[in-house]
Write a structure and sequence with these properties.
about 280 residues; alpha/beta; 2 domains; five-stranded parallel β-sheet; about 50% helix; about 10% strand; elongated; binds magnesium ion; Acid_phosphat_B-like; HAD-like_sf
Length: about 280
């Protein structure tokens, strides 16, 4: 005759069975979630990044409301100057341009331009007479205004001359580091570097000089700014005249770097022109 198990033992078995079922049920629910934790984390990070960027850029555009393939085509048209003069970034491309500028592709494109300039430089040498020269633009070539344009929907808002003057007057633009590297390399290799900007000479010379120096642009040959004679003239006209002046002084302009086509077109051109990407604004 088998001995009956004690009542407490029967109760324990029931409890153990219930625990086992509960454990299986929890495992059934929790396990797939745990397996997908990476996916959820990625999803959350992505959502956070989009929300943060949308917050910075103003109106919230869900992904479905902009066409990135159109915006990529628009940016290519702008960079190749097929677009010609344009006033503001199309509203449907504001988020795209923000992502382009902050998300890594702008930096990658910039690095590629620098690699191409590097390849060009490696195939030549500066002469011993100190007359081989390069011309570099300042705004969004040497110094970045990205911080300012972040507050202007990356160029989605119309240009505001007073606000921009106020920003430039603070002297807080940061160096575009790949261009600073190029600047130093040019000087090391014996080229004279001329910084050529449409900024007003009278108002901005001191603060621009200070800003360039505090960002490491030291050792250039001359800072050429827009004087009263060129007030109201287009950048292409002004910069052509300044290049002519340099050529008249005997300088051989071996290269010219700028973020605007008006830096690189016109007369008295350098041997090679290099366009830095800038989909945020157009200067005629
Ligand atoms: Mg510029």
């Amino acid at each position: 005759m088998h001995a009956m198990p004690p009542c407490s033992s029967l109760g324990d078995n029931k409890i153990n069975t219930s625990k086992s079922h509960l454990s299986k049920a929890l495992s059934f629910i929790v396990s797939p979630i745990l397996k997908m934790w990476k996916f959820f984390l990625l999803l959350l990070t992505n959502l956070f990044a989009k929300t943060a960027l949308a917050y910075k850029t103003g109106p919230f555009f869900p992904n479905t409301l902009f066409d990135s393939s159109y915006c990529l085509s628009w940016r290519v048209a702008v960079e190749t100057n097929n677009a010609g003069p344009w006033a503001t970034v199309p509203i449907e491309c504001v988020l795209y341009v923000g992502r382009y500028m902050l998300g890594g592709q702008y930096n990658r494109d910039l690095e590629t331009v620098m690699e191409m300039i590097g390849a060009y430089l490696d195939g030549m040498e500066a002469g011993d007479d100190d007359m081989d020269a390069w011309v570099l633009d300042i705004d969004d070539t040497c110094l970045s205004n990205l911080l300012y344009y972040q507050g202007k929907q990356f160029g989605g808002m119309p240009f505001d001359p007073a606000a921009f003057k106020s920003w430039a007057g603070k002297g807080m633009c940061s160096a575009i580091l790949p261009v600073l590297d190029l600047f130093n390399k040019l000087i090391e290799r014996g080229y004279k570097v001329f910084l050529l900007t449409g900024r007003d000479d009278l108002t901005f010379r001191d603060i621009t000089t200070a800003n360039l120096h505090n960002q490491g642009f030291v050792g250039y040959e001359r800072l050429i700014m827009r004087t009263a004679d060129y007030k109201g003239k287009g950048a292409k006209f002004f910069k052509s005249a300044m290049r002519k002046q340099l050529m008249d002084e005997g300088y051989r302009l071996r290269g010219n770097v700028g973020d605007q086509w008006s830096d690189l077109q016109g007369d008295y051109l350098a041997d090679r022109n290099f366009k830095i990407p800038n989909p945020m604004y157009y200067v005629p």
